[in-house]
Amino acid sequence: MPSSVESTDASATGLKDTRFQHAEEQYHVDQPAAPGSYLGPIDATLPDADKVPLLFQPFAVKDLTLPNRIVVAPMCMFSSKDGFMTDFHLVHLGSFAAHGAGLVLAEATAVEPRGRITPSDTGIWKDEHIPAIKRVVDFVHNQGGKIGIQLAHAGRKASVKARFDDLPDSEYWKDNVVGPSGGADFQWDKSHHVPHELTVSEIQDVVKAFGQAAVRASKAGMDTVEIHGAHGYLIHSFLSPISNQRTDSYGGSLENRARFLMEVIKEVRNNFPADKPIFLRVSATDYVEHLNKPSWEIEQTIQIAKWVKEAGVDVFHVSSGGNTAEQKIEAVFGYQVPFAEKVKKAVPGLVVVAVGIIVGGAQAEEVLQQDKADLVAVGRAYLKSPSFALNAARELNVKAAFSAQYGRGRASLGTF
């Protein structure tokens, strides 16, 4: 994709490529209320119909106000070339906003090229990425929605094949995969590459890359950014003693292993508007208790939650696993929610997001009613139905706002 607003072919013909120059008025429709906003009960005769479910009460953190408490979790789509968002991302992310999600979080977006999981990941390592990202942001905002982006570095899990890619070897960077510790002992598994150990100078370069990514996210109009510290990617691999066996100031004690994360937070916070919140996604455990060796567990997660709150993180998004092929996970409905609950109880004042096979409105509402989290993130259930929020509303007897363009859908059915 060209780096300027004129493509190579367009330059040759003298025609401008306006794909990423859409003025808002070209497709803007005023939304009487943000899709997914509470408008009242569907059936006012039902018991407690006058009580607004927590899931459909607005939620504010700093200058970000959500119409409901449903978050679309970041999900890799492997649909980019050279990091650029495409029409797919516009439709994919835009559909969630049009159908009532409180907050849409764009997928793990690499802060440097070797930080991609696959060659088809989205990127934010150069200014040329901004217009395509802004196009998506503008659409979400025009629908009345809110959007953030996950800033990521894959670390030792980089340069692997996407499920549906058939790219030549030249698209990969198997000799430039990095981690806190290097060598064959730190290879995630045999399908991944052997990482080399980052030098202190290289670590500082990555920290700066996160900061510059935050600048670009701000220029694109993002309402928030989420630092990806989960699932065995670079930040998580620094945190866990399974993958970090350094002997310098970035290894050893918990404070040292968390140093890279804390430096990233500081750099992102310094380069993203102070009135906008910062999210951090973490894995609460490595799931290797059966190995009986030092690993990453919930007690350490709680400790860093306290540290990052003081460092400027506003929202703590609690996932789990992903750091070793030796993990043993029993993935059942809501299986990660107990980790979020433990963090929320241990760190007052920190906004906590729960995630983990949450598939419906009643289940999500129960998480909030029992004070296990402040927000609920949903991933694969959104791939099954981009209308997850509106479906959850019907389940909870909530008349939720439709996008103005979809309003006739309610009128034709006459029940919600």
From TrEMBL:
Keywords (alphabetical) are: Flavoprotein, FMN, NADP, Oxidoreductase
**InterPro entries attached here?**
Aldolase_TIM (IPR013785), OxRdtase_FMN_N (IPR001155), YqjM-like (IPR044152)
For the keyword NADP, the answer is: yes
Q: Which Pfam families match?
A: Oxidored_FMN
Tell me which residues make up the NADH:flavin oxidoreductase/NADH oxidase N-terminal domain.
55-397
Q: Which PANTHER family match?
A: NADPH DEHYDROGENASE C23G7.10C-RELATED
- This one is known as NADH:flavin oxidoreductase/NADH oxidase N-terminal domain-containing protein
Organism the protein comes from: Podila minutissima
